[in-house]
Every structure is written in C-alpha cells, then in structure tokens.
Write a structure and sequence with these properties.
mainly alpha; two-stranded antiparallel sheet; 7 helices; single chain; globular
Length: 138
C-alpha cells in the first residue's frame, strides 16, 4: 500500500499562488462564457436554482461517509476538469447548448474552489489537498 507524504506532495510558495490565481481566472472566464452563451436561459433556471446547481459538485463530499479513500476518489472525479470537458466538448460538437451550459457552470465551480484553496484531495483526509492543507491544524 502506498504511503502519502502530504507535506512534500502539496505545492507551496509562488506556484501555489499561481495555481490559485489560475483558478480565479478559470472561474471568471467560465462565468463570462456562461453569461455569453445565455446559460441561465438555455437551462431555463432562475438565479437561485442556478446557485444551487453551481454547488452540486460539492455533494461529492458525501462520499467521505464511506471513508477518506472513497471520498477523495469521488470528490476528485467531481472536481477535475476532465468531467466538464467530457460533457462540454461533445455538447459543443453536437450543438447541445444545455450540455455546454452545464459544463461551463461546472468549470466555474472548479475554478472558484481552486482559487479558494480547495484542491484535489489525497486519500488520507479531506483537508489534505494538492494545494496544501485546508481546515484547522491537527
């Protein structure tokens, strides 16, 4: 079984700041794209329901009820750019605006999470991320 070295695996210093700024840029760009494609109209939802939809990926935290390994795997699947690209690219190609709107909103969620320091999780604990430790110190 693999042992995780969180202190050496988490990025720090200037690279961490750049990754967080990158997340902020992704959030802003995705939000602008969502507005530009008329995402709210395409999805037929008002802003309150869009806000709820925006936070839907965070439901993946419930997987931590099955333990940190399962929690990290499910959380990371919901918070990696692979998912929105896998949804949005075929949606763009097929001319399916709802898929594209959902993908852009999902991307915005991931971007703001990264900007706030919520990185991809290690299977040791929820607070162990690739952007450093989050939460209270142990």
């Amino acid at each position: 079984m693999m042992e995780w070295q969180i202190t050496s695996a988490a990025v720090g210093g200037a690279p961490r700041l750049l990754l967080r700024l990158e997340g902020l840029c992704v959030f802003a760009g995705a939000l602008l794209a969502f507005v530009a494609i008329g995402g709210a109209t395409v999805l037929g939802l008002g802003w309150p329901l869009l806000a709820l939809l925006f936070f839907t990926p965070d439901l993946s935290m419930l997987a931590y009820l099955a333990g940190p390994r399962a929690g990290a795997a499910i959380y990371n699947a919901a918070h990696a750019y692979v998912g929105p690209v896998a949804l949005g690219a075929p949606g763009l190609y097929a001319g399916e605006p709802r898929a594209l709107a959902l993908a852009v909103l999902w991307t915005a969620h991931i971007g703001i999470d990264r900007a706030l320091g919520y990185g991809l999780k290690y299977p040791t604990a929820f607070g162990d991320t690739h952007l450093g430790r989050i939460g209270r110190a142990s």
